[in-house]
Structures are given as structure tokens and as C-alpha cells.
Automatic annotation (TrEMBL):
One of its GO terms (cellular component) is membrane. This is IRG-type G domain-containing protein. GO terms for molecular function: GTP binding. PANTHER family: INTERFERON-INDUCIBLE GTPASE FAMILY MEMBER (PTHR14143), IRG-TYPE G DOMAIN-CONTAINING PROTEIN (PTHR14143:SF1). InterPro entries: G_IRG_dom, Immunity-related_GTPase-like, P-loop_NTPase. It comes from the Eukaryota. Residues 46-248 form the IRG-type G domain.
Length: 260
């Protein structure tokens, strides 16, 4: 008994030392935890379950609404706000009655959800596909989620949100730097859009390489344009919204879906 206690103490001290040095343990759920999580999120066999995840404040709830073809003000939409409004995993059926379920997952990197425990604590290992959403910066938290997706062989999609806001901010920077007036905004808008798209793709490529993760596409979207895509209508400022929605549907279609 004393020998076992000594081993346990040594293991604990080693784990604490690694935490102090920034080495995070690899957390794996038990079989029982796996089954409990599936029941908790109401996982339905034959249906496809998409989880939208990422750091706090990136617009996850807005993206879930857009993917369901809803505005943030629509009845039945996920609650949105300027701070992290999602404290529990939200489950939303597809608005078109297809056998899809969209999940709005609390943000990583908050006091309540430390980044290194996020994947397992939120039960992300049970989902069929994961959308890693980021806003201002592609962070270590996003990398950690992608690494866990790879470990669990779960398809992951990198999405940058709030394209309209970011492009407008870039336009304002250009106008201030160039001393241009409002009437000159059209060519500036095209330049800002091009720079934003280019810098976003280069940033993700660089961060994936630094993390030694496989290169993959980043989808640049705006919630209003994405809502329009889901509704089957045209929008003047599409970037990657059509491709994202098409690829998500193709991912779901590649699995065996059994409607009720």
C-alpha cells in the first residue's frame, strides 16, 4: 500500500511539474464518459452533428444561426451578445428539417473553460464535424482544437468570422493613411478586401506550419452573407460562404444519414 501511495504521489508531482512548465496532459475520456456525453448532447444515430467551437467572442452563436438560415433576431435563434453568452452547449435542429444538428459550444479560454481542457470538457470527441471559428487572431487554442480533431480523426473546418467588420476596419485604416475622402471609398474597398483575404490565408498557413499541422483551407465568412447562402439567395459580397456551406453539406452527405 505504501508503495502504491508513493507511486501516486510521484505521478502527481510529475504532472504538477509539467503543468508549471506549460506541458499539458493528453486527456482521454473513459468509455463510460463517452456514452454519457453522447446522451448529454442528445446524439442521434443516423444524424450528422456539427459543433461550432473556438475562443470566446468570435461569433459562434451568430454562425450557428446563419448556418440554420436565421438572423440573430429570428425566433428560435441562438442567443448572441457582446460577451460570452453561451455557458452550456446549445443544441439546434436544422431549420430545413434535414437530419443535421448544430451545436453552439461555450468559448475556450475563459476562466470557466481552460484551453487545454476544452476539447474533452466540452465532449467534442462525440461530434461528426467541428467548425473552428476565430475572429481577430488564430490562436494556440484553435491549434489545440485542431490537434485534438486530428487525434480523434474528426473532420475540422477553419472559419474566420466577421469579414464585413474586418474589411470595414481595413478600409478606415486605408482612408486615414491615404487622406482619402468618402467618395474615394470604392477602390479602397476592393483593395482592403483583397488585403484582408490574402493576410488571413497567409496567417493560417503560417500558424499551421509552426504547429506542425497539415495545411488546410480557411473559410472567410460574414454571417449576413452566409445566411443569404443558406436561404438560396444572392449576396453582393460573397467571399467563402458558398464554398463553406457546400463543403459542410458534402461532409454530411458522405456519411450515411437516416432520416426519421
Amino acid at each position: 500500500a505504501e508503495n502504491e501511495a508513493a507511486k501516486a504521489l510521484a505521478a502527481r508531482e510529475l504532472a504538477e511539474m509539467k503543468l508549471r512548465e506549460g506541458i499539458r496532459p493528453i486527456l482521454m475520456p473513459t468509455l463510460n464518459e463517452f456514452e454519457v456525453t453522447k446522451r448529454t448532447v442528445e446524439y442521434k444515430e443516423g444524424w450528422f452533428h456539427f459543433a461550432v467551437v473556438g475562443t470566446a467572442g468570435t461569433g459562434k452563436s451568430s454562425l450557428v444561426n446563419a448556418l440554420r438560415g436565421l438572423r440573430n433576431s429570428s425566433r428560435g435563434a441562438a442567443q448572441t451578445g457582446t460577451s460570452e453568452t453561451t455557458m452550456n452547449v446549445g443544441r439546434y435542429a436544422d431549420a430545413s428539417n434535414r437530419p443535421f444538428v448544430w451545436y453552439d459550444v461555450p468559448g475556450a479560454g475563459t476562466v470557466n473553460v481552460p484551453d487545454w481542457k476544452y476539447f474533452v470538457d466540452q465532449g467534442l470527441y462525440v461530434f461528426d464535424a467541428i467548425i473552428v471559428l476565430y475572429g481577430d487572431r488564430f490562436t494556440e487554442i484553435d491549434v489545440a482544437i485542431l490537434r485534438n480533431c486530428s487525434r480523434w480523426r474528426i473532420p475540422a473546418y477553419i472559419v474566420r468570422s466577421k469579414a464585413g467588420v474586418h474589411i470595414q476596419n481595413t478600409i478606415n485604416d486605408f482612408l486615414q493613411a491615404d487622406g482619402e475622402e468618402e467618395e474615394d471609398e470604392a477602390p479602397t474597398s476592393a483593395r482592403a478586401r483583397g488585403q484582408y483575404i490574402k493576410s488571413t490565408r497567409e496567417d493560417v498557413k503560417r500558424n499551421l506550419a509552426l504547429a506542425d499541422l497539415p495545411q488546410q483551407r480557411v473559410y472567410i465568412v460574414d454571417k449576413d452573407a452566409l445566411t443569404t447562402v443558406v436561404k438560396g439567395k444572392e449576396h453582393p459580397d460573397f467571399i467563402d460562404e458558398q464554398e463553406l456551406y457546400r463543403d459542410l453539406l458534402a461532409e454530411a452527405g458522405s456519411r450515411r444519414i437516416v432520416p426519421e
